[in-house]
Hints:
Elements: H1 13-22, E1 36-47, E2 50-58, E3 68-74, E4 81-87, E5 101-109, E6 112-121, E7 124-132, E8 139-141, E9 157-168, E10 171-180, E11 184-192, E12 198-206, E13 222-230, E14 245-253, E15 256-268, E16 271-279, E17 288-294, E18 300-306, H2 312-318, E19 320-321, E20 323-324, E21 328-332, E22 338-342, E23 350-356, E24 359-362, E25 368-373, E26 376-385, E27 390-397, E28 404-411, E29 418-426, H3 431-434, E30 441-445, E31 451-459, E32 462-467, E33 470-475, E34 484-491, E35 493-504
Parallel strand pairs: 1-19
Antiparallel strand pairs: 1-2, 2-3, 3-4, 5-6, 6-7, 7-8, 9-10, 10-11, 11-12, 13-14, 14-15, 15-16, 17-18, 18-20, 18-21, 21-22, 23-35, 24-35, 25-34, 26-31, 26-35, 27-28, 27-34, 28-29, 29-30, 31-32, 32-33
Amino acid sequence: MTELTHPLATVPRGELVARAEADPHRPRFHFVSPGGWLNDPNGVCQWDGTYHLFYQYNPEGAFHHRILWGHAVSTDLVHWEDVPVALEPGSGPADPDRDGCWSGVLVNDGGRPTLVYSGRHGEHELPCVAVGSPDLLSWSKAPENPVIAAPPAGVDITAYRDHCVWREGEKWRQLVGSGIRGRGGTAFLYESADLRSWDYVGPLFIGDASGDPEATDWTGTMWECVDLFRAGTGTLGGPGGQGEDALVFSAWNDGDTCHPLYWTGRYSGDTFEPAALHRLDYGGRYFYAPQSFQDESGRRIMFGWLQEGRPEETSVEAGWSGVMSLPRVTTLAADGTLSFAPVPELEQLRSGHVSLPGRVLVGAGTPVKTGISGNQLDMELELQLSAGSVVRLGLLGSEDGREETVVELALDADGSSGMLRLDRSRSSLSAEEEGLDTEPREGPVTMPEGRVSLRVLVDRSAVEIFANGKPLTARAYPVLDGGNVSLGAVAGSARLLSFDTWTMGEIFGGGSRVLFP
Length: 517
């Protein structure tokens, strides 16, 4: 039997992959690790035509401990191949990453792939660098690590980690996520000529942590996984260009992962001038630590981490934890906010197309079964809601109706304000016994003339919803068979203009996957 070296390592390493693959809640067309733990996306990029997805990884078990960088590659953003681990913690007592290689990014340093990541040593993290081979499959850590010796002097910080790095003129610039105790989250700005020697510039922008920590737009006491990019045209920090800059971060508070948010505004010089704060995903922590990159066609692609909604002990026994989101194309909407959609490459997984005829939905109290069923589905609906109407789309419904996860669209009485909701109160009969999270999720959606384009992707326990470009991501763990889909208006009336559904295939074929290292 494999030696178990951590209190939570109750499953022998040799059993992790088999247990993970046997779990009926494990997604089949989202990326998941071969077994063990997965969290933040890291170093996402396209290099010489190949997409690379690095991620926080623990192959010892489904718990967060002594993190490595897992690595997978793809030619189409859909089908992924596992390749050996990119980064492992150092083995020496003085190594700056001896306790974990935490989150970071990949940059192109004059043709050399270079990782900037947080090395964990004891209870602290500091920036480190590693240089890769041309195929990005082997990595050498810089002897200068850590490349920043300490957080800014004289600042009482809450935490200090995670990186955003970009080239601006003849210099490199870097943001490190942090927080100033008693004030709020921030990102510290640095500058370098060579990615090794960094000069501290100052805080790019400081949030306000004095609000209600339960609010869905509270900015936290620390900003994790900061990501700054030009959402419109032009280059970040460059002259001209149209649109907004976006400063994305995940609000954190004393160990609690809260939710992803973003500021729109304008980055110039050494500061960011915010215009408005927005929620990035209405699912909150179910789309956490997002990271984006610009691919070779010019699209901005974003990944996020879907946390589990079940207790850690359940995930440990299942042999796996954590799901990577489907890759999302990120664009600037007409109202100046970000809009999201799954990459079109995912459509190659579709089969078994079913199209339902358009009709008028009249509030009758209970949505009816559509005849569609499955737990790996891609659904596209076009709807037009009348003022005061509420439409419900039921997912993962059991035959007897005792289980169902419900997507709800509502338009207020004067037709001026729309809302997207997810009701998971009946998503699993075992919710109370197993301690599952079934809290509702919701957020506003603009519905011009009541029109809504709704996209729902269900992949076993992973649910990603897009309503007029606004996402809501969550998890659900039904225990009964069925997977039935229902639809109806429960108040007012709405027109169903179109309803197309496909069964989605699997992205990992063949035999069992292999744990690395």
